[in-house]
Predict the 3D structure of the following.
Amino acid sequence: MKISVVIPTYNERENLPELVERLSRALQGYEYEIVIVDDDSPDKTWGLAEELARKYPIKVIRRTKEKGLSSAVIRGFKEASGDVFVVMDADLQHPPEKVPELIEAIKRGADIAIASRYVPGGAVKNWYWYRKLISKGAIMIGRVALPRIRNVKDPVSGFFALRREVVEGVELNPVGFKILMEILVKGHYNNVREVPFTFGLRKAGESKLGSRTIVNYLRHIYRLMRWEGEIDRLVKFSLVGLSGVLVNEGFLWAFVEFFGWDKVFSNILATELAILNNFTWNDIWTFRDLKNKPLLKRLVSFHVAALSGALVQWAIYVILMAVGVHYLLANLIGIVVSFIVRFAVNRHVTWG
Ligand SMILES: Nc1nc2c(ncn2[C@@H]2O[C@H](COP(=O)(O)OP(=O)(O)O)[C@@H](O)[C@H]2O)c(=O)[nH]1
Ligand SMILES: [Mg+2]
């Protein structure tokens, strides 16, 4: 089993010798190559890599026309000749000594092995609590939005290994800069294993990605949701919700006007009929391919989602008003959040 370690570099001249040295020591006994994909670094990292290639099994790719971390990794995959690909940064934030653990996880049956900051034993060095919070929050959004990655604790790690077959024939979009997330959504695999590691400090040089915003990440998630058909589901779910409004109003009107029933009782009954209407359409349309649970469980779970949504909506309304938000805006925010909560619960639980 041959290992190809793919390393994207941009101005990493100072880190390269130690990286290559530690990596080659860690990989003693393995058949391996190091594929360095450099985007014509001004500090001539590619030149140093070529020098190191005389002593170590290194393949240097110097790109002059393209730029970007993800496209560099994808290019590395194309040039790699191994059966297992390892992806890692050049700045020693990813300890080379972890690589054998990732490879062994693959040997034991994992298709993808992730060096993970967020499984027990994993950590990040020198991050303020708010930086961790943003990182974890961003990951949570990704896991809720993309059901295929919901069990992965660190789907945005830049340090991972995979069998070549996982990405073979898969069209990866280089625009998103979280290449692992792209692979986890589009790749061919069954087993993912996460190995804890400590995300260290950059040894030398400076970060190129620090200025990348959460907006880029959210756009990446949006694109992957579209690719997975999740946006289609959201649209269908919304249309069903609108149909529920009509059902609710129609029955309420009929109960009060034609039967002369009590308005509160009529409202409860009309709401329940709307819930049943929505459940039916979602079951035979929005989530028709996801009927893994028995009908009764789906029905109960759908009611729980509806109730949770209503509670969340009400709580947000009360809390936002208490802090001085205009009541109409408070209600609107409540409605939006309630919608997200109901969609998420139904997507992950009712039709999970
Ligand atoms: N080829 C290539 N490598 C890049 C590019 N941007 C960053 N890198 C490399 O990707 C790795 C991670 O980048 P880094 O700046 O450390 O990101 P951070 O750890 O998120 O701050 C490092 O090895 C960089 O040299 C790029 O545009 N092209
Ligand atoms: Mg770094």
